[in-house]
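Lab notebook, bench 4. We co-purified these components, and the gel suggests they stay together. Before we commit to crystallization screens, I want a quick structural picture of the whole thing.
Request: model the full complex, all chains together.
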Amino acid sequence: MHYFVGDLGHLFVITSFITSLVTAFAYYKATTSTSLEKKRLWLQNGKTGFYLHATAVLGICVTLFVIIGNHYFEYHYAYNYSDLKLPTYYLISTFWNGQEGSFMLWMFWQALLGLILIQTNKFWEAPVMTVFAIVQAFLASMILGVVVPGLHSRIGSSPFILLRDAMPEAPIFSAQPEFVPKDGNGLNALLQNYWMVIHPPTLFLGFATTLVPFSFCIAGLWLKKYRDWVRPALPWALFSGAILGLGILMGGYWAYETLTFGGYWNWDPVENAVYVPWLILIAAIHTMITYKNSETALKASVILVISVFVLILYSTFLTRSGILGTASVHSFTDLGLSGQLLIYLLFFLIAATILAIVRWKEIPTTEKEASVYSREFWIFIGAITLCLMGFQVLMPTSIPVWNKIISMLGFNGNFAPPADQVGFYSKFQLWFAVAVGALSGVGQFFWWKKADKQKLKQHLIPPLLVALILFAVVITFGKIYTPSYIVLTLSGIFTVVANAFILISLIRLSPGLSGGAVAHIGVGMMLIGIMFSSGYSKVVSLNNTGRLISEGLSEEFNRDNLFLFINEPRKMWGYEIEYLGERLEPRLHSGYVKKSEVFETGDPDKVVAKINIVAGGKSYAPNDTIQVKGENTYYEIQLRRGKQSYSLYPRAQINLEMGGSAGLVPSPDIYRTVAADLYTHVSTAMKPASEDDWSKLEEVKVNKGQEFFANDYVATVESVERVLTVEGVELSGEDVAVKARIRVQGEHRDYFAEPIFLIKNKLVGRIPDEIKDLGLRLVLMNIHPETNNFTIGIRSRQKDFVVIKALEKPFINVLWIGTLVLMSGFGIAMTRRVREFRKMKEKGQEVV
Amino acid sequence: MKKSHILVLVVIAAAIAIIVSTAGDASTYVDFEQALALSTSGSTKEIHVVGELKKDAHGNIIGIEEGSDRVSFSFIMIDDKGKEQKVFYNQPMPPDFTRSEKVVVVGSYDQDNFKASKILLKCPSKYQDEKKLNV
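Here is the predicted assembly.
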């Protein structure tokens, strides 16, 4: 048992907690000190404190990695989230698999950001880092795992507890306290892909970065420097918008690739909880930009920047406290932290609100009203639209919270989220999206061109004309007839065209200013991509066989799924489609191994080759052992059109444990073309056949080399040889075992079966061999050496089949490309703002 | 009226509209008896029912039946009031269904059968149900 490592980790956690408190105090004193000398000393203390804190955070991370990487399964974290078979990159992702780990990831990023802020902001360091340190203290408290004497509960949940302490009731530990499991529980199938490695770190970096503008805002209010906090905060706000947005979209893309609901956004509460702060953040960025050219938007920026951070805390609360309970498919297990999370949320909500209220009167605003033709006015309208958009999502998502509040007031709070989430949110968000598109186009003209009625018409008409022409083309060829989609398309195209015009004029002027235009083009593309791929997602696996898949299934299922017997081609989506059989994935290299070409062994992760096999560049000879990922079965589906052919490998995991019937965990495979994605997954596959499915035994007597029929396939006994070893059977010197090698000609290729006949202890035994694809089981019934022939037993069943569902997602690539364009826009804008900030600092015009 | 006042009024109106639509489209959590009453009174609205899977004395799940097509299945659920009901779901069993602490079905009654269009699961708390270890 490795006790030291866990204790060390725990020590690091406690250290990080204490150092963050000490740092907060030191920076607080530094901010409030009137004497310059005292200020300098406290600043030094604060810096030292934070460096120590950051070291402790690093220590926590390293320690947890050591536990996971060395497979110390006596620790609950390693046991629950990893196993011996996980490759290194998944072991890394084990780190954030559990809630404790994801808190640590968050702390890690914030520690890093804090170090950067210390280096880059002399003037703002003290107040900003005070806020940072307090937040770190809260996060550290979530993983403390300390029981305070007097309080009946534990503060935080430590990732370093032993399995023995996490499951005290498990009987094995009372008998054997030093028990260490040989292997862990491993990683859930659906989490085993590269997104698990990049999506959480990106998302948590996004969360961490929302703290930066917030800290600057609080610092500005605190020090009464109401204008100056915006300039340093703006590049960080842009960075945050980019990273958080990227993190959210990665989640969507992951869902699209791995889950089988055929989409990238489900309007699930957990998704919504991070979508809302992102919208508000975008609104905040826009008011922060306007404010710099005029002071009207300053108050708005304060409110919005504070709201973003508070909403992130709220989203953490929703996700982790268990309050969503039955309302979300993402329900994470409740660690009992809901009280702490609520305190965390309320502390910052109340503290920030009070500070803002106290300072409100002193915040400068202009008295005169913004004209309807001014930039400020349109930015405002845009910000309000985004806020309403967020509000519309926030309200229903918070239904479980409303329920709790209603029941605390004594009434019966029984609301459930809308039954059809996607339909509900889409019908509202679509119109908000239309407004966003229109505003982001029109607004740019107000921003960059002179604000005056006449000139405006002049400026707007060319892009409007171009947009209308494009729009007419797209509507006609895209066959878009639904009114709401038509409007959305117009809005998307308009913003792309309008911003393209702006972009062209800006590139001539100064390319560094084009961030907004590029970002808006990205948004327009995303709207168009979303409209096509979601609005026109089409089921293409329409059942054209003329028969029901099954009467017990819904009409919808029968209609939308295609039944494919192995090796029998069908027509779909303009292609010929054929199911070619089950495949296995080698563990150590790429490619696929045909299940029909290998023997299964007792170990699901090892198979033995029947014939020469080449997979992913590696060759195997008969009787070689191939290591495979036994939990995944792939179904090769081939699409052919003319001379082109392409294979899709949707995957499924067949879970045999539950109550008699098998559960299938499918994952899609996607065939990408420029105009659309063909998205396919297995709805159901043939389950491992039970004995009842096989026909009665039919016997034939044949010579070697003589052709006979097995279930309508042509078969020949190629050889019969004595074998000295039989897997799973102990043979002594007196025992005899004979193996027949039978070739069966399938539709496309030959298959081999090797049934065995043996005599052990004077008793006859027969080991059949099965050709799965053809539904054949062959038995070497008897050998007749006198006549030199053999009796072969044949049993057959229904051929292997698979039921697939395939969706066409038109122009979904426009969405993903639009995302990249949006990110570039963010990048350009960020670069510009950072440069401006630095120039100002050098010129001394900035408060440094 | 000042422009800003108009704006504020518009925003408030929109916010109220949003709240009303949220309440209007929200579903409710009911038990089976209430769900049956709703359906007999003609409501076709889908509702949520929370409950647990039926278990025998040893804690093993009983009542799960495979459909004749081997894809759909039905199971027996007990709601918060203790009423048992057979629920039909015409798609394959969701993963980890049998390990779920609580189950929420979204659907409605069709005569005497409860047809679920969605099943939501709540995964068991780490520290409770996992009494089995890989020994």
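Confidence is low (pLDDT under 50) at residues 125-135 of chain B. Worth comparing against the SEC data before the next meeting. The two ends of chain B are 77 Å apart (CA to CA).
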